[in-house]
Specification:
The chain is of the alpha/beta class and 359 residues long. The chain is built from 14 helices and 9 strands. It holds the Pfam family WHD_Rv2258c.
C-alpha cells in the first residue's frame, strides 16, 4: 500500500485481521434472525433431546422445508451453536446450548434477547435520523419484537431471582410481603415482575404501572392467565404520575435509565413510600467507568443504549439520558438528588444489579 508523510503506515496483517473479525461480526449480526427462525419454527426445541438429526429429519419433525433446514443447520454449525459430524452427516444441539436456546424457564434463556436485537435493528433507521438532531424515539414507537423480546429475556431471570434472592436481600421486606404489603411495580411492561411477586406473596396487593397502553393490556391478560388478577391492578400511567401511596415496597425493573427525568420519578417514589418503606431498583449491570464495561455484556448494553434506551429518554421531558450503562455511582447521584439517603447494592447477576433504596 502506498503511503505519504501525511498518512499513517498501515500494518497489512493488522488490517486483514480486523477485516476477518468484521466478517465474523456480519455473520453474528445475521445470526440474530437465524436464532429467531430456530425459535419460531421449533428447530431448537426439536433438537433439545440431544439426538443427531439430518436436514431431512429436522424438516420432517418440524413440518418445514428441507432446503431451509439444510442452510440453517450449516449456518448454526459454522457459528458453533450446534455441532456437525462429517462422518454421519448429523447435527447435534449440545445439552448446554439447549438450556440457553430451548428452555424458556431457564434464567440463561436467550431467544428473547435475540428478539430484542432483531426488533431494535429493524428500527435503527429511525434512530439514525434522530441522532442528527438529538430527537428521541419512545418505547411505544418500536415494533412488537422489542416489547415481546424484552419480556421473554427478562422474565426467566425475574422468575429465578426476584423471590429467591433479590427480595430476601432487602432488609425486612420479605416479612412485610408475607404478612401483607402494598407494592407498586413501576414500569412493569408486560407484568412479568409483578406477577412473579404476586404468585409468591398471596397476602400482598400490587399495582403495576406503565405508560405503554399495549403493554398494560398484555399484563392484564397475563395476570388473568396466572390466576393473580384479584391481587394486581394494572394502570396506564407514567412514573412521574405515581400515586396511591403509601407503599411498603416500590420496585423498578430495568426501566429507571430509560426515563427522561429519573430524578423526578425518584421524588415521586419518595412521596408515595411508607416511612419505613423500601424501593428496589433493578438496573443493568455496569461499572462506573467506560473501561469497566468494555466486555461482551457491556458491549451489548452500550448498543441497546444507543439504539433503544437513550432515544427513549430523549423522547421524554427531562431528556437526562443517563444510559443503559449508567453504573452504581451515577444511579446513586440520581437517587440522592431526589432525597434518598440510604442506597446500597445488595445483589447482582451477570446481567443485573439490585439496589436497596430508602429515605
Amino acid at each position: 500500500m502506498t503511503t505519504t508523510a501525511d498518512t499513517p503506515q498501515i500494518d497489512e496483517e493488522r488490517l486483514m485481521s480486523f477485516v476477518f473479525r468484521a466478517v465474523d461480526e456480519l455473520g453474528a449480526s445475521l445470526n440474530a434472525a437465524l436464532v429467531l427462525m430456530g425459535d419460531r419454527l421449533g428447530y431448537y426445541r426439536t433438537m433439545a433431546d440431544g439426538r443427531p438429526v439430518t436436514p431431512a429429519e429436522l424438516a420432517e419433525r418440524t413440518h418445514t422445508d428441507v432446503r431451509y433446514t439444510r442452510e440453517w443447520l450449516n449456518a448454526q454449525a459454522a457459528g458453533q451453536y450446534i455441532e456437525y459430524s462429517p462422518e454421519t452427516g448429523g447435527y447435534t444441539l449440545p445439552a448446554e446450548h439447549a438450556v440457553a436456546l430451548a428452555d424458556e424457564n431457564s434464567p440463561a434463556y436467550l431467544p428473547g434477547f435475540f428478539q430484542i436485537v432483531n426488533g431494535t435493528v429493524s428500527d435503527a433507521p429511525q434512530v439514525i435520523e434522530r441522532a442528527r438532531t438529538g430527537d428521541g424515539l419512545g418505547w411505544h414507537a418500536h415494533n412488537s419484537d422489542v416489547h415481546t423480546g424484552c419480556e421473554r429475556f427478562f422474565r426467566p431471570q425475574y422468575n429465578a431471582n426476584v423471590v429467591s434472592s433479590w427480595l430476601p436481600a432487602l432488609e425486612g421486606v420479605v416479612d412485610k410481603l408475607t404478612a401483607g404489603a402494598r407494592v407498586a411495580d413501576v414500569g412493569c411492561g408486560h407484568g412479568a415482575s409483578t406477577i412473579v411477586m404476586a404468585q409468591a406473596f398471596e397476602r400482598s396487593t400490587f399495582v403495576g404501572s406503565d405508560y405503554h397502553a399495549k403493554s398494560i393490556a398484555t399484563a392484564r391478560t397475563r395476570a388473568e392467565n396466572a390466576g393473580v388478577s384479584d391481587r394486581i391492578t394494572f394502570e396506564q400511567t407514567d412514573a412521574q404520575s405515581l400515586a396511591g401511596g403509601p407503599y411498603d415496597l416500590v420496585t423498578m425493573f430495568d426501566c429507571l435509565h430509560d426515563m427522561g427525568d429519573p430524578i423526578s420519578a425518584a421524588r415521586q417514589v419518595l412521596d408515595n413510600l411508607a416511612h419505613d418503606g423500601t424501593w428496589m431498583v433493578v438496573e443493568p449491570i455496569a461499572g462506573d467507568h467506560v473501561e469497566d464495561n468494555l466486555n461482551p455484556v457491556g458491549r451489548a448494553y452500550y448498543a441497546f443504549s444507543t439504539l433503544l434506551c437513550t432515544p427513549a429518554s430523549l423522547s421524554q421531558d427531562g431528556r437526562l439520558a443517563i444510559g443503559t450503562q449508567a453504573g452504581e455511582a451515577r444511579l446513586t447521584e440520581v437517587l440522592s438528588a431526589a432525597g434518598f439517603t440510604r442506597i446500597r447494592r445488595v445483589a447482582e447477576t451477570p446481567f443485573n444489579m439490585v439496589l436497596e433504596v430508602r429515605p
